[in-house]
Amino acid sequence: MKKEETTEHQILDAAKDVFQSKGMDGARMQEIADKAGINKAMLHYYYRSKQLLFEAVFKNAFSLLAPQLNAILNDDSSIEDKIRKFTSDYTSFMMKHPYLPNFIINELNRNEDFILKLKDNTGFPNLEKFKTKVDSEIREGILKPIDADQLFVNILALNIFPFLGKPLVKALTKKDEKSYKAFVESRKIEVANFIINSIKTSIK
Amino acid sequence: MKKEETTEHQILDAAKDVFQSKGMDGARMQEIADKAGINKAMLHYYYRSKQLLFEAVFKNAFSLLAPQLNAILNDDSSIEDKIRKFTSDYTSFMMKHPYLPNFIINELNRNEDFILKLKDNTGFPNLEKFKTKVDSEIREGILKPIDADQLFVNILALNIFPFLGKPLVKALTKKDEKSYKAFVESRKIEVANFIINSIKTSIK
DNA sequence: AATGGGTTTAACCAAGTGGTTGGCAAAGAT
DNA sequence: ATCTTTGCCAACCACTTGGTTAAACCCATT
Measured between CA atoms, how close is B3 to chain A, in angstroms? Predict the structure, then answer.
């Protein structure tokens, strides 16, 4: 039997669906059981409590996101290349997992202490290398002076916000589902240009 | 008796607290009643149902946010001035209402149709004037070519994200509450510069 | 003092809620 | 063949949920 067919995995799969679309408070154990096609008692048999099942789903989701961040932080390419690659890759990734950013941001806000449990994990993104690279490119005259933290938050903001605020942005810009998708797709390049334009010194 | 002391207003006030920090699903009618210091039956007496009380709170919150957006969209100043003013004003405003962005974004995601109820309201932000201004400044050579929708979303993203993703950003940049506040405060100017740098043509 | 409408309350209710239990059947283990 | 473990389920449980109700309480008008 494949791993994907075990009851335990079917539960996690169904729980992911329900928790990510309805959040911890809105999710119902019965709905998860129904979606997994098993008895509700099994949820507790394998995961003991709603809280623990939720944490399993959350850690799973975060472990999907973290490598996306590490990609930009830990490789050796130039800041410009990092930004271009990240902006394109991240957007593609999010188009495949549209619930993910909202789920994570939201549940972290609901329980701020929760992130402490993640910090211990190996693989939690670390900015040091990125900062060093930014500072050295500034010294070399490739980039205009900018605080690396600020730049990093700007990169995140421009990439994540269109997914977080999708309903709002859709309404404000009067786009339907199809044109919103095209809008986000074009941001893969637009956002990178926008950032680079701002931080790169003009070539003499 | 002042308006602020009526039972109806006390309920709305308490409901705002609870709904904004716990969301629709996490909020409890009993907690709202307790916080307002009145009997739970009064909530239904004045607002009939949890759903309607929630909608009252939500519309109230949105009507606080909408003018902030309209400020940048509807005045006659240059795009640069709009951006500088908005970035500073919006950040100040959000520091006073930290739960607001998350509440709105979140509940709009929970129920996409909900925004339709707001769209009808007069005062729902309209981008037309902003777009016209952007296009005319591009034609005048003040700005580099950029799609006005993209620019608008970038402005929103850079301003709102630090509030939406506060727990995540705090953890990633390893800032405590105090230094995070300073970080956000400095963005009032940093973000405006970041945007202007990117879109303004270099002066010959 | 009696009336009557708006306001407030304690007590209540039906429908869920997460979680538990005891037993059952198939699969190993002895 | 018998015992033990594992996976599974229907039924159940204590408790919470949003919402209701009928009676009380004010307080201005008569």
Answer: 32
| pLDDT, mean of residues B30-58 | 97
Do the Cβ atoms of A86 and A72 come closer than 8 Å?
A: yes
Kindly determine whether residue B172 and residue A108, on different chains, have CB atoms separated by under 8 Å: no
Q: How far is residue A90's CA from residue A83's CA, in Å, rounded to a whole number?
A: 10
Q: What is the domain range of residue A29?
A: 1-48
User: What's the average model confidence in pLDDT over B127-142?
Assistant: 97
Mean of the pLDDT values across residues B174-201?
98
| Residue A204: predicted pLDDT | 45
The reply to whether B6 has its C-beta less than 7 Å from any atom of strand D is no
Q: Which nucleotide comes closest to A40 if you measure CA to C1'?
A: D9
- The whole-angstrom separation of Cα B45 and Cα B37 is 15
Cα(B101)–Cα(B64) distance, integer angstroms: 11
Q: What span, in angstroms and rounded, lies between the C-alpha atoms of B137 and B155?
A: 17
Q: Please tell me the predicted confidence (pLDDT) of residue B204.
A: 45
Q: Domain check: are A62 and A142 in the same one?
A: yes
Query: In which band, very low, low, confident or very high, does the pLDDT at B112 lie, cut at 50, 70 and 90?
Result: confident
Q: Is B123 left (phi over 0), alpha (psi -120 to 50) or beta?
A: left
CB B61, CB A63: distance < 8 Å: no
Q: B85 and B185 share a domain?
A: yes
